Amino acid sequence: MEIHEETTNLREELKAVKGRIGELEQRVEHLRVSRRVLMNLLEKVEREKVALIHSLEKENVRLQRDNTRFAKWIFSKNREIVKLQEKIDEYKEKA
């Protein structure tokens, strides 16, 4: 009778261990899927970051170019003002 009980207990333990192994295998598979999803998201974020950096660099170049153009325009207008002021001063001296 003892051998029969031990055999029954061992079978139950074996069944429980097999069930636990099945659960752990499922968890491992879920972790693999989760890892793939996270890696895909990470790659997507990296691609978006590179695209954003590229876009911002282009915008920065454009803004610097526009700023240089505007500074040259202001400088030329300032020269015109100085020349006109000199002409005014000359006419005042003549008068």
- What Rg do the Cα atoms give? 40 Å
- Taken from the alpha-carbon principal axes, the silhouette is rod-shaped
Poorly predicted regions: none
- What order do the SSEs take from the amino end to the carboxyl end, as H and E? H
Strand content: under 5%
Calculate the terminal CA-CA distance, rounded to whole Å. Answer: 137 Å
The largest sheet is: none
Task: Name the structural class.
Answer: mainly alpha
How many helix segments? Answer: 1
- Total beta strand runs: 0
Helix content: over 70%
Mean pLDDT: 96
Coiled coil: 7-94
Keywords: Coiled coil
Protein name: Translation initiation factor 2
If you had to describe this structure to a student in words, what would you say it looks like?
There is one protein chain. With 95 residues, the chain is mainly alpha-helical. It is 98% helix and 0% strand. It has one helix and no strands. The chain has one helix at 2-94. The longest helix has 93 residues, at 2-94. The radius of gyration is 40 Å and the shape is rod-shaped. The mean pLDDT is 96.
Write the layout of secondary structure elements.
Elements: H1 2-94
